[in-house]
Amino acid sequence: MTDATAPEPELTEEEVSQQKSVRLAKRDKLIESGAGAYPVGVGISTTIPEVRAQYPNLEPDTATGDVVGLAGRVVHLRNTGKLCFASLQSGDGERIQAMISLAEVGEESLERWKELVDLGDHVFVSGEVISSRRGELSILAREWAIASKAIRPLPNLHTELSDEARMRSRYLDLIVREQARQTVRARAAVNASLRSTFSHHHYLEVETPMLQVIHGGASARPFVTHSNAFDTELYLRIAPELFLKRAVVGGIERVFEINRNFRNEGADSTHSPEFAMLEAYQAYGDYNQMADLTQQLVQDAARAVTGGLQVTLADGTEYDLGGQWSRISMYDSLNEASGLSITPQTLAGELYQHAESLGIEVQHPTHGKLVEELWEHYVKPGLDRPTFVMDFPVDTSPLVRDHRSIEGVVEKWDLYVRGFELATGYSELVDPVIQRERFVEQAKQASRGDDEAMRLDEEFLRALEHGMPPSGGMGMGIDRLIMAITGLGIRETILFPLVK
Fold first, then answer.
1. Which helix (H) or strand (E) holds 33?
2. Angle at 11 between CA 26 and CA 88, to 5 degrees
3. Any idea which positions bind Mg(2+) 2 (predicted)?
4. Distances in Å between the alpha carbon of 300 and those of 22, 190, 204, 410, 481?
5. For a Cys-Cys bond, which of 79, 228, 284, 439 suits 456, CB 3.0-4.6 Å?
6. Residue 451 burial (CB < 10 Å; 0-12/13-18/19+)?
């Protein structure tokens, strides 16, 4: 059906209020008539997508003899004398034309349609599947009913919603914009793919606490709340790591979790205070094996969403997630890009002077923080292809095992895709004595004002003292994984992002 209505500007609040008054009056009429404005159900026998799939190429002006009952939201409406047209949209955006004719429904029903149906209403129609003279797949209605009366009008379907409106009213974004619906489907496909890949590798999925007495597992500032039942301060978790490692101690040797994390930090195009996180741990694995697993997880997810590894991003450019991804040393790549000779033994003061000369500010500077900041300055901007950056400074990675052959670094990698950090992986620190020493050093940093430093967790240390097998671990942001595959910003990947 062709909508003959010209594009109109967005309604003002006064106009919305007026439309609400008119629609509320229609609601009252529906209730008074006994038909109801919000029936408990309608006689659906099929769906719009199913009908479209059954009749993909129906010739113009054809009657099928197939009588169906279906429902959808009215997104276009054109009322003429003896024949009215509506475009009904299903939740996934598929549409079909409904034709309400005097000959089929009678005069009273046709007049009620004209009087009571508005854009945005959910409507049920029952009738024969036909194609119009123009070849448009249609339902020639024999009966119709309001399935849900919309009191507030839809936004202008010819004009894109503003970014603010899309974030604040995602339900409208889903109604009017195909990309929004595609992103929801992509996220579901990614989560299903992740679980499938883990299942193939014999991992078990578990759930760990979101409310924690001690926050840990990452360097981040937590959200703080209070439990009235326990009369104690609690933290929204910043990572599930310390509980997943307890599971490994208990004998769940391959374990993963997909759930929500919360970090009381800034929000930008790659950070959200509330975000979805994947973490996984494998007994008798190391950071090399976890890198192999992570590459497979990402590539399997890309195939699930796009059908291949050459993905088309939101801006139309293509990005290659295929092949074997490079693995580079943090220190070696820093020295190559900067022309410096930085080693794990280079004094923090020397690094600080160089960072200061570049205008790089580092809060609570340590050797490790300075090395990482310098690396981000010199190397990160040049990363385009998916790349594992290996072997980090020891003082910024308190939960990671010392490198087996290089003094002063730990067996940790960060995965960069499209220039941003997507995932991180470790050979896990399982020595409870060294772990305690690392926690004590973190506590000292916290006492000096570092809000992101980890706290000493005696319960976790007690678990380690019972013996944790050598293990590899990895963590990846689900929102960032969607970003890597689609090219969208982080708020676009989250169904209902936090809006101030």
1. helix 13-33
2. 55
3. 421
4. 51, 8, 18, 29, 12
5. 439
6. middle
- Predicted pLDDT at 9: 61
Per DSSP, the chain holds a count of helices (H) and strands (E) of 16, 18
Query: What is the per-residue pLDDT across 333-351, written as a single tens digit (0 to 9) for each?
Result: 999 999 999 999 999 999 9
Q: At what angle do helices 367-378 and 348-357 cross, to 10 degrees?
A: 30
Closest by CA to 382, choosing from 423, 463, 326, is 326
**Which residues, 6 or more positions from 424, have their beta carbon under 8 angstroms from its beta carbon?**
412, 413, 414, 415, 474, 475, 476
Scan for tokens 């970014």, then name that residue: 163
Angle between helices 432-447 and 458-465 (to 10 degrees): 170
In b/e form, how buried is each residue of 133-153, taking b as 16+ CB within 10 angstroms?
eeebbbbbbbebbbbbbbbeb
239 CB burial (10 A radius; 0-12, 13-18, 19+): buried
Cβ atoms 114, 85 nearer than 8 A? no
- What is the CB neighbour count within 10 angstroms for residue 258? 19
pLDDT average per 10 residues of sequence, the chain (500 residues): 48 89 97 95 96 95 97 95 96 96 96 96 98 95 97 86 86 92 96 98 97 83 92 93 96 96 83 92 98 98 97 94 97 97 96 95 92 97 96 91 95 96 96 91 78 80 97 96 94 87
Q: Smallest Cα–Cα separation from 422: which of 291, 239, 228, 289?
A: 291
Residue 390's nearest CA partner among 409, 366, 417, 412 is 412
Q: Is 414 annotated as a binding residue?
A: yes
Residue for token digits 């994947």?
Answer: 278
pTM of the model: 0.89
- DSSP-derived letter for residue 124 is E
Burial group, residue 64, by CB count within 10 angstroms (0-12, 13-18, 19+): middle
Q: Which residue has the tokens 């290089």?
A: 406
- The residue among 490, 500, 454, 499 whose CA lies nearest residue 276 is 490
CB atoms within 10 A of CB 413: 25
What is the spatial distance between Cα 268 and Cα 138, in angstroms, rounded to a whole number? Answer: 45
Structure tokens at 295: 């590459």
Tokens at residue 14, please? 């006064």
3-class SS of residue 311:
strand
Question: Is 465 marked within a binding site?
Answer: no
- The SS3 assignment for 425 reads strand
Helix extents (H) in 339-425? 348-357, 367-378
